[in-house]
Design a protein that fits this description.
The protein is 44% helix and 22% strand. It has a four-stranded antiparallel sheet. Helix 1 runs antiparallel to helix 3.
Length: 81
């Protein structure tokens, strides 16, 4: 059974929510630091899930940031291949 890597929740507001889970504490801290340095607002809940408010414009203007987050999340898997 495969799990979704990201969840996109469409909302009535102009922005949608992009959610993803990070269980590794080291990766969590690296992603938090990256988001804070970029001035990107996010929520991190007790279930170890990040939630970002996004729209098409935000995705286009922050493509490198989102790619870097993905790289951090799957770093060990990528390095083992």
């Amino acid at each position: 059974m495969e799990k979704n890597a990201y969840w996109l929740h469409k909302r009535m507001k102009p922005t949608s929510t992009l959610s993803f889970s990070v269980k590794d504490e080291e990766k969590t801290e690296a992603i938090k630091k990256l988001l804070e340095e970029a001035g990107f607002s996010y929520t991190y809940n007790r279930y170890k899930e990040f939630m970002l408010n996004i729209d098409a414009k935000i995705i286009k203007s922050n493509t490198s940031l989102l790619k870097e987050i993905h790289h951090i999340r799957f770093k060990k898997i990528i390095e083992e291949e």
